[in-house]
Design goal:
30% of the residues lie in helices and 24% in strands. The protein is an alpha+beta fold and 358 residues long.
Length: 358
């Protein structure tokens, strides 16, 4: 490695090791926020803070230029019982760094931070913002969503999640629907009442078989699954209500509200979404960054898992070192050379974008 490359790797590894040692469960990220804030300050970067979210702008930030957001999260899930290592002890072994949050999404976060520092003092054709945010693992409102109004306008965002440095150009959204069919109670031995279960069955069958007109290029069709059902309180009483839950995985072909409108047009039950905020996301192929990725031969894919992209109402893509399948697993790890390749991959992508503007 050349001098800067080695320095970036060493500093990223040291920061990630420090983060692993510091518990940062969702809503409890104050200590890791302090670490990240101090790391940026030590590199001469002015920082901003709201709650457990830390962000910074490049030195020559110009409001007249378009802005790129570099974002990843510093909260983690709680370690599961399958760990054989201490989840809060960074262990280097066999070319790997073990520790809670090493893969999801510590490796991405420190790689993005070093990428930001690489470009920080340069005169750029774009603005850069680095944001280390909270509450991603529980989709909390106190995470990146709470600071977007402070950051906008943003042209596109890079969301650091473990993708083996492939570009996730589309991501599924999520709606959970509470549905209720209404009937009329009656004695089961007589021809009385209106059975709410039977009314619900026709709607459930619709959810099972309906196909939306539009299908996503990268994500395929929208997926709707009935996952819970509840009805009745006595064997000899025709139930007057039947409640069921539907898990809806939306795609970039529709917004969540559009999907909800279509559902309500086709079913007779009352449909109440728990939330419509976790929208699908995508990166238009017409954007310059998408074309640069094609020139560099970066693989593109559609992601079935939800990230902070869901609350960003501007184009985004998911990309980072590590592998999604390692997330939330016992003895979580990231390969050491993935950290280096993550830093260099981010730098190469942005540098090629900047070169096209010069």
């Amino acid at each position: 490695m050349e001098v800067n490359r080695q320095t970036y790797y060493d500093e990223a590894l040291a920061l990630l090791s420090q983060l692993i040692q510091t518990p940062s469960f969702s809503k409890e990220e104050n200590d890791t926020a302090e670490i990240i804030d101090q790391f940026l300050v030590d590199h001469g970067v002015a920082t901003y803070r709201k709650g457990h979210n830390v962000w910074a702008q490049n030195k020559y930030f110009d409001p007249d230029k378009e802005t790129i957001l570099l974002n990843s999260h510093h909260d983690t899930v709680k370690p599961n019982k399958g760990y054989s290592n201490d989840p809060f002890k960074p262990i280097q072994r066999d070319g790997k760094l073990y520790g809670l949050g090493s893969n999801d999404a510590g490796g991405c976060l420190v790689s993005l931070i070093m990428t930001f520092i690489h470009f920080y003092e340069q005169q750029l054709p774009w603005n850069l913002i680095i944001a280390a945010t909270a509450e991603e693992e529980n989709s909390g409102s106190g995470g990146v969503e709470s600071i977007l109004s402070d950051l906008k306008p943003i042209t596109f965002g890079v969301v650091g999640e473990p993708t083996e440095m492939k570009m996730g150009v589309a991501e599924k959204g999520l709606m959970v629907l509470d549905c209720e069919a209404k009937g009329k109670a009656g004695h089961a031995a007589r021809d009385q009442g209106i059975n709410a279960i039977y009314k619900a069955l026709s709607d459930i069958e619709w959810f099972r078989t309906f196909e939306f007109d539009k299908e996503s290029e990268f994500l395929g069709p929208i997926k709707m699954s009935v996952t819970m059902i509840e009805s009745g309180y006595q064997h000899n009483v025709v139930p007057d209500t039947c409640k069921f839950v539907v898990d809806v995985r939306t795609t970039d072909s529709y917004s969540n509200t559009e999907v909800l409108d279509i559902i309500r047009q086709h079913v007779s039950c009352k449909v109440t979404p728990r939330s419509t905020r976790l929208n699908p996301s995508s990166l238009p192929s017409s954007l310059a960054i998408s074309k640069v990725a094609d020139q560099l031969g970066i693989d593109k894919f559609g992601s079935p898992t939800t990230s902070d992209q869901a609350v960003m109402d501007f184009p985004t893509f998911k990309m980072g070192p590590g592998r999604s399948e390692r997330s939330h697993t016992p003895d979580e790890f990231i390969y050491l050379d993935e950290i280096d390749s993550g830093i260099q991959g981010y730098i190469r992508l942005l540098q090629n974008l900047f070169d096209q503007e010069n």
